[in-house]
Amino acid sequence: MENLALLLHGFSIAFSLENMAAAIFGAVVGLIIGAMPGLGGITGVSLLLPLTFGMNPTTAIIALAGLYYSTMYGGAFSAILLNIPGDSPAVVTSIDGFKLTQKGLPGKALNASTVSSFIGGTIGILILTVSGPLLAKAGLAFGAPELALLVLFALTSIGWLLGDDIPAGLLATGIGLMFATVGVDPALGQSRYSFGQISLLSGISFIPMVVGFFGFSQVIDMIITGDDGAVATHVRIRDCIPTWSEIRKMLPVSIRQGIIGTFVGVMPGAGATTSAFLSYVMEKRINKDRDEIGTGSMIGVAAPESSNNAAAAGAFAPLLTLGIPGGATTAVLLGGLMMWGLQPGPLLFTEQPDFVWSLIASMYIGNVICLILAFACIPVLVRAISVSKKVLVPIIIAVCVIAAYANSYTMFDVVLMLICGVLGYLMKISNVPTTPMLLTFVLGPMLEQYVRQSFDMTRGNPAIFFRGGICWCFIILIVLVSVSPLLKKAYRKVKGA
Amino acid sequence: MGYVFPGLSVLVGLYWAVKAFGYKLWVLNGPGGGLFPLIAGILAIVFGIVLIVRRYRTKEKSDFSIKSVFPVLGVVGIIIASYIIGLIPALGAFIISWMVFYEKERWGKSLMVGIGTAVVLWLIFDLWLAVPLPMGVFGLF
């Protein structure tokens, strides 16, 4: 009840003209930046931070927070319409989202993404309101061995993404892991496979890579097959509205992944991209319509979108209550808090209640603003892609180039995008799936780092992976996931006999 | 062409696996920098070979066309031109050239789309986001 009273007080502050204007401004800018390929939340927050110097801290954080989670909404737009993810969490959305566009259902995909983003975001903020400090403490219970087992659990789920062609999927997994091992290694800090390139010391950049694998390879495919690809012609607005049965399918998925996404967002180092991948593999495994996922299903859009928005909200729990940023974007936000003279930590909630609760209240308002803005954009976006392929193809190529360049302002990233685009096309004609590769690329470095840290903590004693209940939970899950296909096979055999 | 990707995977996987030993597999009581690359290399070699053998046995054919080279050449052209005339004009020039010479569209329409896209990209990336774009030798954009 105390939290509710404080939240209402927060609303009274957030509803001031100045703060509402800041929330709307942040949401609009975030939506645009998120939709632009190559520019994610961190770029947006970094760009807006200097503009907030003159504002009071509450107004400034409201603008920045609005921008941060609206990039999650915007990131899905270009992923669904052009197969070019706006930011890294939207990579998963593009798997089913773009297939829906190819089927002539871009509006449905955008609606699914917007609604599930709203549900996920709202769940994340609700959980943050009720149990923010508690959640942050729970997140801290995840040390290196627990996180290593969590990532391993996600990787063992790859089997569900491979489809029928297991060797091709495992080849993609190997390629993803190869890409992931480029750069400085976590053990001795030595450079690996960088070929003397300074740009490769920090590893292969994610944005040019996905722009190449998804966007540019798609353009090559469109030219060769004569497939209109992203060009959805004669799409009626009424075709964009989801049916009741589609809503019934999406709703439990959005709620489930909203809850899980919030917890993943709380964990240090996990973040929105990891939560989006986890949600996708989980639905691929447990959803009764799992066979549809990967072929252009609204569930495949709803799960990652709900999860990544919830993770964005969840990331505020450790940031505000412990002063620990969950990822790069929240680290920039932390810098902003310190710049305004605020010390995040357990005392922030008691010493600066106006600041904390008006921020949380503004997140509810910002989420509604994002929903309205995104809905308003959908008819325009659907019409925007209803143009001839002859016009769209060179524009997509130009966008791919500038998106790759904008990642780190070097032509090296454009070359990287080009190489990945060609590789993506070669994978396509060889029937090798790209999703397991991307999953391994995202999770591989995390696994390597956490395994190394775990061994460092005990000077090489593997017993650390068996400490506590969380570890055992994950071990049991890993074993179950690994042996369940064999058990299923045996069960079918017994049933058949 | 269906052999190219698995073949390339085997070769690169081999390089990865061999080089991994140089980064040490186990060091200071924990996995060294070479352990994960070795696993990656082995996966690429083994399953690359599996795919090559399967393709050879089933005589699977892949859809490849020389047309796939055009967008690649286009991007190479943009990279080179960006050092001379700047990135934004290079992108505009690419769109115009593609529409006129490849798609056989009218000059008027092509100029409108090319210049329009270049202006929008300039407004967003240069003017608003202040991305330091290559200006070329003339330093125009």
Task: Give a verbal description of the structure.
Chain A has 497 residues and is mostly helical. Chain A has 21 helices and two strands. Chain A has helices at 2-14, 17-35, 41-48, 57-82, 90-102, 106-140, 144-156, 159-162, 166-180, 206-225, 244-266, 271-286, 298-314, 316-322, 328-339, 348-351, 353-384, 389-408, 411-429, 435-458, 468-496, and strands at 183-184, 191-192. Chain A has a two-stranded antiparallel ribbon. In chain A, helix 3 runs antiparallel to helix 4 (57-82) and helix 4 packs across helix 6 (106-140). Chain B has 141 residues and is mainly alpha-helical. Chain B folds into two domains: 4-58; 66-128, no CATH class. Chain B is 70% helix and 3% strand. Chain B contains five helices and two strands, in the order H-E-E-H-H-H-H. Chain B has a two-stranded antiparallel sheet with strand order 1-2. Chain B is flat and about 60 Å long. Chains A and B meet through helix 9, helix 10, helix 18, helix 19 and helix 20 of A and helix 1, strand 2, helix 2, helix 3 and helix 4 of B.
Radius of gyration of chain B: 23 Å
Strand order, main sheet of chain A: write it out.
1-2
Which protein chains are joined by the largest interface, and how many residues does each one contribute? A-B, 64 and 68 residues
Mean pLDDT score of chain B: 90
Distance between the termini of chain A: 60 Å
Would you tell me the structural class of the helices and strands of chain A? mainly alpha
Q: Sheet bearing the most strands of chain B, described? A: 2 strands, antiparallel
Contiguous runs where pLDDT drops below 50 for at least 5 residues of chain B: none
Task: Let me know the average pLDDT of chain A.
Answer: 82
What portion of residues of chain B belong to β-strands? under 5%
Which percent range fits the helix content of chain B? 55-70%
The ordered string of helix (H) and strand (E) elements of chain A is HHHHHHHHHEEHHHHHHHHHHHH
